[in-house]
Design a protein that fits this description.
Blueprint lengths: L3 E4 L5 E4 L4 E2 L4 H12 L7 H8 L8 H16 L4 E4 L2 E4 L7 H17 L3 H13 L12 H27 L3 H14 L4 H13 L3 H19 L5 H11 L33 H9 L12 E5 L6 H11 L8 E5 L11 H11 L11 H12 L5 E7 L2 H4 L10 E6 L4 H7 L2 E4 L5 H12 L1 H5 L1 H10 L4 H13 L5 H18 L6 H13 L3 H12 L7 H8 L3 H13 L4 E2 L5 E2 L2 H14 L2 H26 L22 H10 L1 H13 L3 H18 L2 H17 L3 H17 L3 H18 L2 H17 L3 H17 L3 H17 L3 H14 L7 H17 L3 H18 L2 H17 L3 H18 L2 H17 L3 H14 L15
Parallel strand pairs: 6-9, 6-10, 7-8, 8-9
Antiparallel strand pairs: 1-2, 2-3, 4-5, 11-12
Helix pairs in contact: 1-3, 4-5, 4-6, 5-6, 6-7, 6-8, 7-8, 7-28, 8-9, 8-10, 9-10, 13-14, 17-19, 17-20, 19-21, 20-22, 21-22, 23-25, 23-26, 24-25, 24-27, 27-28, 27-30, 29-30, 29-31, 30-31, 30-32, 31-32, 32-33, 32-34, 33-34, 34-35, 34-36, 35-36, 36-37, 36-38, 37-38, 38-39, 38-40, 39-40, ...
Pfam families: BTAD, NB-ARC, TPR_12
Protein name: DNA-binding SARP family transcriptional activator
InterPro entries: AfsR-DnrI-RedD_regulator, BTAD, NB-ARC, OmpR/PhoB-type_DNA-bd, P-loop_NTPase, Sig_transdc_resp-reg_C-effctor, TPR-like_helical_dom_sf, TPR_rpt
Length: 962
C-alpha cells in the first residue's frame, strides 16, 4: 500500500508521496471519502454513508450507488485502502497520512517546546501546523459529527495561532506578533490567554501603555457582558506590566552565543529532482568554523523557470544545520515591473527579523547596511537573496565577516559580484534529459514509465524547464483518462500555433507553450480572472481584493482562484493571499493587453482602487473615530468582510499597507488622480500616528504627482503640506521647511485663503522646531489674521495655541497663558470638540508648570491625559506624559517622573515622533540627575541629542489641530 497524504483541513484532497494529486474530483466520491476520513480507521455503516451522501433524502438506489462510489474510490486509491464488511466500510490511514492528525501532533509539540522555553522549535512546529490549513476543515461535509470535529480543530488552530505569535514575540518579532494577536483578540475577545499574549507582545515591543489598554478593554468587556472579572493569571500579568517586571523580558533558548536567529527560508519544493553537481558545488562553499575568509557568495544564474529558486531553497534546507544562528530570505522581485524590493527595504526586514526595534532602524542605506554587518559579526547565518536583478541591489546585503554564506538567484550573470566581491557563479542550464525524465516520473508516476517515448517528447516540448514540466504534469494529472501520447500531441499543436505567432527560439518559447496550454484549459470566467491577476499593480492580493478586481462575490472569486491554484498558475502565500510567478504574471499581463479591451482593464483596476479606498475609509473610521475625514464618502456602504473593530482595522491596514501604496502610485501614474488623492486624504493620519513616515512621504509624493499631472495647484499644495508634516516627524526640518514654504506659495497663488492659513500654521510649527521663534511668530500671526477674517473659530483657536508655545519656548510664560486661555475661549464647540480641547488642556498644564503652579498644572494635565486616552490620541498622550514627568521632577519625585517618561518613550517608539522621543530622553536625563544617577542621566542626554539633531529637544507643548 503506497503512502499518501489525506488532506481534510480544507476541501478533501489526496496527494501521493511523490507529490502527485489523486483526482478525487467528483462530488459524491469526495463526500464519501470525507465521511470515512471523519472516522479514520473506524467502521462506518452504510446507513451513515447514505445519510452523508444524500442529506435531504436518499433515492431508492442509494445503497447501490454507494457501492459504486466505493468502487470508484478503490480504483483511485488502491483496493487495499478501503475495507468492506457487514459493519460497513472503513478507510485505512497509516500514521502521518492524515493532515488533521499531523496538525494536532505538531500543536502538541509546539506547546511542549514553548513550555520548555525552546521558542525557535515552538515557532517552527506551530508554523508547520498552521501551514497544513487550506480552509475550513472537512469543507465537503455537513451534520453534527462534522460540526463537532470542525469545532475541535478550529479550537486547536486558535491554540496554534496563539502559540506561534507567543513564540515569535519571544524570538524578538514583537510587532508582527502583536498585529497577528490583535486580530485574534478582536474575533475572540473572551479568550484570556490570547489577550495575555497580546499584552506581552505589546509590552516587549515597547508599547506598555497599549498593553495596559488591552487589559482595560478586556476587564470592561468581561464585566459588562458576563459580570466577571479577569482571571488571576491575567490580573498578575497586568500588575507585572505596570511594575515593568524584568521577568517579562524575553527568555531566549540557549544558542551558540545565547542568541536565537530567524528561519525565513520557504518550504522546500515537493519532488525536487536532479542538480546533483550544483548541490555538490554549493556544499563545497560551506564556511568552516575556523575560516577567516570573507563569507562566500554563490550566484545561481539561468533563464526564468529553470529552477533557480527551487535549487536555492532545496540546498538551504539541506544545509540549515550548518547555520545555527538563522536563515534569512527575501524575494527581491528584481524582474517585477511594478514592485522591486530595494536594498533599504530588504535590510529593514532583515534587521527586524534579527530583533532590531523598528524605531532603531537607521534611515540611511549605508547605516542600515553597517548595522546589518555588525549584527552578523561572529554569527553563522545563511542569507538567501532571491530574484536579484543587479549587483547594486545585492551588495548592501552582504555580511562583512566570516561564518555566513550568501545565496543569490538571478537571471542576470551579475558579473560585478563575481569580479568585485569574489562571488562564485553557478549557471543552471536546462535539465539534462535523464533528470527531466526523473522529474516527470516523480510528478506523473506510472504513466511516464508506461510510455517513456511520450515522456521524453513531453520533456523536450517543455524545453526541460522545471516550471514548464510542472505545469504540463499538472494538466496530465488532471486528465487521467487521456494517454500521455494524446497530451503530447495536444501540446505539439499548441507549440506550432505559438511558433507561427512568435519565431523566437529561446527557452521561454517552451514556457509560453506550457503557459498557453494551461491557460486554454481554463473556462472563460477563470481565464479572465487569470488575466486580471496579471494586470494589477500589487504583489499579492487577498480574496476580497480579488473579488473587487474581477467584479464578483467572494465565493465566486474563491472558486475561480482555487482552479488557478490547482493548475499551478497562482500561488497561495502562508497567510492565505494570492500571488503569481513573475513570468506567469508577465504572460497574464500580455494576454490582458491582447484579449481585454483597454476600458475593461481600466474598469477592473478602477474597481480595485475603489475597494481599497472604501475599506480604508471603513478602517480609518474604526482606527480614529474622532477624525471625520472620509473624502470619498465610503463608510456608508460596509461589506460583511470589512473590519469591525479597531484591532481588525489595524490588522487590515498593516497587511494591506504595501498594496495601498502600490494602488496610489498606479493611480497617480495613470491619470487616476481621484483615487490617488482619496487614498492620501484617507490614510495620511494612519501613517502619521503609526510612525510610517517613509510610507507617508511616498503616499504624498504620489498625490503630488497626480496633482501636478492635471495641473491642480490646490491638490499640489495639499500634498506639499503632507510631505512637510511627514518630514517634520522624521526630524528632517529643513526639508519640511521647504515643503511648507512651497505650500504657502501655492495657497497665495491660487487665492485659497483658508488653505494658506493652514499652510502658514504648519510653517510656523517647523520654524519653532528650528528655534526661529520670531519668524515662527510672524507666520502664526498671519495665519491668525486669516482665521479671524474668514470666521474660522476652530482654526483661530489652533493658531492661538501654537502662538502660546512660541511664547513658552521664549520664556514669556504669562503671555503664553493668555494665548492659551484666548484659544480656549475661541473654541466654537467646547462640549464636542474633544481633540482641540484636550490639546489646549495639555498646553495649559505646560504653561502653569512653567509658572510654578504645580497643583493647577497637574489638574489640567490629568484632564488632558484622560481625554487623550479616551480618544486614542497617542501623540497627545506621549506629550502629556512627558509634561507630567517634568512636573514630577519639579515636585521632587524623580521615580514617578521616570515612570512617566518611560511610558511616553514607549509611545513615541510606536508613533515615530522623533521630537517627542528626544524630549522623553531629555526628561529622563533630568529625572535621573535629580535621583542621583549621573550615568543614566548622561546616557539619556546623549540619546536626546541623537534623536533630534538640530532641534531643541526640551521644547514641550502640544500641536493643536485646526
Amino acid at each position: 500500500m503506497c503512502r499518501v497524504l489525506f488532506r481534510v483541513l480544507g476541501a478533501v484532497d489526496v496527494v501521493r508521496s511523490d507529490g502527485v494529486r489523486v483526482p478525487v474530483d467528483a462530488r459524491k466520491p469526495r463526500v464519501l471519502l470525507a465521511t470515512l476520513l471523519l472516522h479514520a480507521g473506524e467502521w462506518v455503516s452504510v446507513e451513515r454513508l447514505v445519510e452523508a451522501l444524500w442529506p435531504e433524502g436518499a433515492p431508492p438506489s442509494a445503497e447501490k450507488n454507494t457501492k459504486t462510489y466505493v468502487w470508484k474510490l478503490r480504483g483511485l486509491l488502491g483496493g487495499e485502502r478501503i475495507d468492506g464488511g457487514r459493519a460497513g466500510y472503513r478507510v485505512r490511514v497509516a500514521e502521518g497520512e492524515l493532515d488533521a492528525h499531523r496538525f494536532e501532533a505538531l500543536v502538541r509539540a509546539g506547546r511542549r517546546h514553548g513550555d520548555a522555553g525552546l521558542h525557535r522549535q515552538a515557532e517552527a512546529a506551530f508554523a508547520e501546523a498552521l501551514g497544513l490549513w487550506r480552509g475550513d476543515p472537512f469543507r465537503d461535509l455537513a451534520g453534527p459529527d462534522a460540526d463537532s470535529v470542525r469545532a475541535r480543530l478550529v479550537e486547536r488552530r486558535l491554540t496554534a495561532l496563539e502559540g506561534h505569535a507567543a513564540a515569535s514575540s519571544a524570538l524578538g518579532s514583537h510587532e508582527e506578533a502583536a498585529v497577528a494577536l490583535a486580530g485574534l483578540v478582536a474575533r475572540h475577545p473572551f479568550r484570556e490567554r490570547l489577550r495575555g499574549a497580546l499584552m506581552t507582545a505589546l509590552y516587549r515591543a515597547g508599547r506598555q501603555a497599549e498593553a495596559l489598554d488591552v487589559y482595560d478593554e478586556g476587564r470592561v468587556l468581561l464585566d459588562r457582558e458576563l459580570g466577571l472579572r479577569p482571571g488571576e493569571e491575567l490580573r498578575r500579568l497586568h500588575l507585572d506590566i505596570l511594575n515593568q517586571d524584568p521577568n517579562l523580558a524575553v527568555d531566549r533558548e540557549p544558542g551558540p552565543s545565547g542568541w536565537t536567529g530567524p528561519a525565513q527560508v520557504p518550504a522546500a519544493v515537493v519532488g525536487f529532482t536532479g542538480r546533483a553537481e550544483h548541490v555538490r558545488r554549493l556544499d563545497g562553499l560551506l564556511p568552516r568554523t575556523d575560516d577567516r575568509q570573507p563569507s562566500p557568495v554563490a550566484v545561481i544564474t539561468g533563464t526564468g523557470g529553470v529552477g533557480k529558486t527551487a535549487l536555492a531553497v532545496h540546498w538551504a534546507h539541506r544545509a540549515r544545520d550548518r547555520f545555527p544562528d538563522g536563515q534569512l530570505y527575501v524575494d527581491l522581485r528584481g524582474y517585477d515591473p511594478d514592485l522591486p524590493v530595494g536594498p533599504g527595504d530588504a535590510l529593514s526586514g532583515f534587521l527586524r527579523a534579527l530583533g532590531v526595534d523598528s524605531r532603531d532602524i537607521p534611515r540611511d542605506l549605508d547605516e542600515r547596511s553597517a548595522a546589518f554587518r555588525s549584527l552578523l559579526a561572529g554569527r553563522r547565518v545563511l542569507v538567501v537573496l532571491d530574484n536579484a536583478r543587479t549587483a547594486a541591489q545585492v551588495r548592501p546585503l552582504l555580511p562583512g565577516s566570516p561564518g555566513c554564506l550568501v545565496l543569490v538567484t538571478s537571471r542576470d550573470s551579475l558579473r560585478g559580484l563575481v569580479a568585485k566581491d569574489g562571488a562564485t557563479r553557478l549557471r543552471l542550464d536546462l535539465l539534462p534529459a535523464d533528470e527531466a525524465r526523473d522529474l516527470l516520473r516523480a510528478l506523473i508516476g506510472d504513466r511516464a514509465a508506461a510510455d517513456p517515448r511520450a515522456a521524453d517528447v513531453l520533456a523536450e516540448l517543455c524545453a526541460r524547464l522545471p516550471l514548464a514540466l510542472r505545469l504540463a504534469a499538472e494538466l496530465a494529472t488532471g486528465r487521467p483518462s487521456a494517454s500521455l501520447a494524446d497530451l503530447v500531441g495536444e501540446l505539439t499543436r499548441e507549440q506550432d500555433r505559438l511558433d507561427r505567432l512568435d519565431d523566437d527560439a529561446d527557452p521561454h518559447a517552451a514556457l509560453r507553450s506550457a503557459f498557453s496550454w494551461s491557460y486554454r484549459q481554463l473556462s472563460p470566467a477563470v481565464a479572465r480572472v487569470f488575466r486580471l491577476l496579471g494586470a494589477h499593480p500589487c504583489h499579492e492580493l487577498g480574496l476580497a481584493a480579488v473579488a473587487a478586481l474581477t467584479g464578483s462575490d467572494e465565493a465566486t472569486a474563491r472558486r475561480h482562484v482555487d482552479v488557478l491554484v490547482r493548475s499551478h498558475l497562482v500561488e497561495t502565500t502562508a497567510d492565505g493571499r494570492f500571488q503569481m510567478h513573475d513570468l506567469l504574471r508577465a504572460y497574464a499581463r500580455g494576454l490582458a493587453a491582447e484579449v481585454d479591451a483597454a476600458d475593461g482593464r481600466a474598469a477592473a483596476l478602477h474597481a480595485l482602487a475603489d475597494h481599497y479606498v472604501r475599506v480604508a475609509a471603513v478602517a480609518m473610521g474604526l482606527f480614529d473615530p474622532a477624525d471625520p475625514a472620509d473624502p470619498a464618502g465610503r463608510r456608508s456602504a460596509p461589506a460583511p468582510t470589512d473590519p469591525t473593530t479597531r484591532a481588525d482595522a489595524v490588522a487590515w491596514l498593516e497587511a494591506e499597507r504595501a498594496n495601498l501604496l502600490a494602488v496610489a502610485e498606479h493611480a497617480a501614474r495613470h491619470g487616476d488622480a481621484g483615487h490617488a488623492e482619496e487614498l492620501t486624504a484617507t490614510l495620511w493620519r494612519y501613517f502619521h500616528v503609526r510612525g510610517h513616515h517613509d510610507e507617508s512621504l511616498a503616499l504624498h509624493t504620489h498625490a503630488l504627482v497626480a496633482g501636478r499631472r492635471r495641473a491642480d495647484r490646490v491638490a499640489e499644495g495639499v500634498a506639499l503640506t503632507g510631505l512637510g508634516v511627514a518630514c517634520e516627524r522624521l526630524g528632517r526640518y529643513e526639508e519640511a521647511l521647504r515643503h511648507h514654504e512651497r505650500a504657502v506659495a501655492v495657497g497665495r497663488e491660487t487665492g485659497d485663503v483658508s488653505f494658506t492659513g493652514r499652510a502658514l500654521k504648519n510653517l510656523g510649527v517647523v520654524l519653532r522646531r528650528l528655534g526661529r521663534h520670531d519668524e515662527s511668530q510672524r507666520s502664526f500671526q498671519e495665519a491668525l489674521a486669516i482665521a479671524r477674517a474668514i470666521g474660522n473659530r476652530r482654526g483661530e483657536a489652533g493658531v492661538l495655541c501654537s502662538l502660546a508655545l512660541v511664547h513658552e519656548a521664549s520664556g514669556r510664560y504669562e503671555e503664553a497663558l493668555r494665548h492659551v486661555e484666548r484659544a480656549l475661549a475661541a473654541v466654537p464647540d467646547v462640549d464636542n470638540d474633544h481633540a482641540l480641547v484636550d490639546h489646549l488642556q495639555a498646553n495649559l498644564g505646560l504653561v502653569h508648570l512653567r509658572l510654578g503652579r504645580w497643583e493647577v498644572a497637574g489638574k489640567h494635565l490629568d484632564e488632558a491625559l484622560a481625554g487623550a486616552r479616551a480618544t486614542g490620541n497617542r501623540d497627545l498622550e506621549a506629550e502629556v506624559l512627558d509634561t507630567l514627568g517634568e512636573l514630577a521632577t519639579a515636585e521632587g519625585d524623580p521615580g514617578r517622573a521616570v515612570d512617566h517618561h518611560h511610558e511616553a518613550l514607549a509611545l513615541t517608539r510606536r508613533t515615530g515622533d522623533r521630537h517627542e522621543e528626544a524630549r522623553a530622553h531629555d526628561g529622563l536625563a533630568r529625572a535621573h540627575a535629580a535621583w542621583g544617577r549621573p550615568e543614566d542621566a548622561r546616557r539619556h542626554r546623549l540619546l536626546a541629542t541623537r534623536r533630534a539633531p538640530g532641534a531643541r529637544p526640551v521644547d514641550g507643548g502640544s500641536r493643536a489641530p485646526g
